[in-house]
Amino acid sequence: MGHGIAQVSAASGYEVVLRDIEQRFLDSAMEKIRWSLDKMASKGRITAEEKDGILNRIRPVVALGEALEGADLVIEAVPEVMDLKRKVYAELDAAAPEGAAFASNTSTLPITEIAQATSRPERFIGIHFFNPPQLMKLVEVIPGEGTSDETTRMTLEYVESLGKQAVLCRKDVPGFIVNRLFIPMVHEACHAMDRTGASMEQIDSAVKFGLGFPMGIFELADFTGMDVIHKATVEMHQRDKGVVNPHPLVEKMFNEKKLGKKSGEGYYKYSDEKYERVALSEELAAGYDPLELAASVLNNAAWLVSNGASDIEEIEKAARLGLGLKNPLFETAKEMGMGRIVGALEKMAAKYGPFYRPDPLFATM
Asked: pTM, whole model, 2 decimals?
């Protein structure tokens, strides 16, 4: 993520210092950037001169003090471990220029909590790039409780200057927007297997052909990585028991190192030779009704609106760009019938507990 963010920033004209704790990591990062730019040049997307210009605007540095000299914006992309984030920001806060803003490229960790490791919460913000940053258009921007309007405005302008599309998560809620929809859905798909007896292929086919996802939810989970999903689940559930109903299979797969495509096995098995897609079909989709799965996703979307973290338009934009949805979520809900969605949630709440209680927003729709 770090080298991808450096590349897109330099490609937009910014002077970038790329910092890591050892030279070998920086060498690897620069090699990946060169590979990416060579590929773009070979396809005619950039010229040889533009490639050289981008590379010349990225300066790899190990020494933290040197790396931070004159910095306006510091973007951190260290692993999703709160103690590590806090340690890094304590070091950054002591060494960075007083006016520099800090932006954490976290997908789930609370911005307000990380900002407490610094003396500048008003200049601290979340900036969640999607992977890979060179290709994905969406960036979630998440102000913490102490973030100033000026820092939020500056961050939105920076994201737009990269040619990206920003969505603003107005409150620092667990999962922000995209992961608040995606992570719980992986668990709900596991619950659906238990509750209905449907196969993974049937559920995935229904998600793809019935709900307009680019791939099945199990397939998407394998593509994302069970390590990412498990860590996000733990962080989100720790802070809000109402956001996700954890299924034990996710933790079991993580513990067994069945991480998805990156390990060769997740929900499905993969070979090393080439990128494989799971064989899904409309015939398989007929074997599972995705009503309850859609209802649970929509319930989390409705929560974001009810709690002032987002609005329907921004949620649809995030789902389209972050999850690749072809059909707007709330349009799908209207097609299924809002009464059926609420009925499904009420039935699930009666059978499986208050976690599924319908959000008050549905009463207004």
From this structure: 0.92
